Amino acid sequence: MSETPRVTRPFAVFEWMIALRYLRAQRSAGFISVIAGFSFLGIMLGVATLIIVMAVMNGFRNELMDKILGLNGHLIVQVYDTPFTDFDEVDATIDAIDGVRLSFPFIEGQAMASSSLGGFGALVRGMRQADLERLGTISDNVLQGTLEGFDEGESVAIGIRLAERLGLRAGDRMTLISPRGAATPFGTTPRIKSYPVAAVFEIGMSEYDGAFVFMPFQEAQAYFNEDGLASGVEVFVDDPDDVDAFRTRLDETIERPIFISDWRQRNATFFSALEVERNVMFLILMLIVLVAALNIISGLIMLVKDKGHDIAILRTMGATRGSIMRVFFITGAAIGVVGTFAGLILGTLVCWNVESIRQGLSRLTGTELFSPELYYLSRLPAEMDGGEVVAVVIMALLLSFLATLYPSWQAARLDPVEALRYE
């Protein structure tokens, strides 16, 4: 009675031993080891670059959203049928709605801010001191001066970049020039008035720090000839993504014709461009990992050619086609797995220290990297998203595994008789 041959279980110890032996550098296969090394570096750098770029894009978007939505309301309520004289009643009605975090009336107009150094366009917003103090984006970021007594005098609060352009500090005087001045028999004359700078703030977004001027509400009404009126009511809600529900509530609650605009409408083009750029960057950088995976294919094909004699001997000793295929699969997959997780570690370390790295490179090169004038923000943000990181790792591993299939299949198909014919 013949003995049934014992079948070796998949991924047995000897398969791992042979596969890992093929990964070690040998004199006869030095060039193959170099290719494996470059494949490892390619996957590591590709994964790290993907993680870093996606984290910076996420941080950039979230930081901009925090700055934009921290200063501008999630919804703005305006009227269009009659002058907005009942703004206090409308504000009280809005403030009583569940889910509204903050609401306040405001006056808004354009003017030119000037000093002895020159003049720059500015967006003047009239607000009450109590509302300005509740707006943490401003009150928590005052660098010079104070908001105390803001309503009592004729003073303004300006952004740090506007202050630097005009050469002003808290306590200095700034001149505002508005085309909406007094009406005379000869036409409307510009309104020119000088104001002391009560406070200088820094939001961290250059576009806002260089353009916004905050003025007491009643003074803004007088300055823009809007006595007893408001431009609108700004509304901040607990969930900015749920503004559609609040639009419905506001329409049902406010008993007069109103016009409502939300943050998505006002910034639709900007955030859509960011989203498109983010997706395109992901696809482009994924090609780096794909190129590294193709290097795994070329390296394994050369390894199969070089190890044809070894494969033939293994087959004559009883190794199955499946065993041979798994040996080369492990060899190629090991490069992909180690490279992917090395890239994950490298990318995570860079994301945690991206601002320090930016500052170090700026000092080293003597240039300002990530200029606030170009990128709006004063620091380089990076926020890793767990789902995106997992997706990058899975895609890199999948490409690495797929890259090993064809060379492994070729190794399994090798005929031992042909391989040993001329030995």
Automatic annotation (TrEMBL):
Record bears the keyword Transport: yes
Keyword tags: Cell membrane, Lipoprotein, Membrane, Transmembrane, Transmembrane helix, Transport
Compartments reported by the entry: Cell membrane
Source domain of life: Bacteria
Transmembrane segments: 31-57, 280-304, 324-354, 389-409
GO cellular component term, pick one: plasma membrane protein complex
Domain ABC3 transporter permease C-terminal: residue ranges: 283-416
BP terms from Gene Ontology: lipoprotein localization to outer membrane; lipoprotein transport
Residues of the MacB-like periplasmic core domain: 39-252
Keyword match Disulfide bond: no
Topological category with respect to the lipid bilayer: Multi-pass membrane protein
Pfam families for this protein: FtsX, MacB_PCD
Family, similarity comment: Belongs to the ABC-4 integral membrane protein family. LolC/E subfamily.
PANTHER family given in the database record: LIPOPROTEIN-RELEASING SYSTEM TRANSMEMBRANE PROTEIN LOLE (PTHR30489:SF0)
Protein name, entry field: Lipoprotein-releasing ABC transporter permease subunit
Source organism: Microbaculum marinum
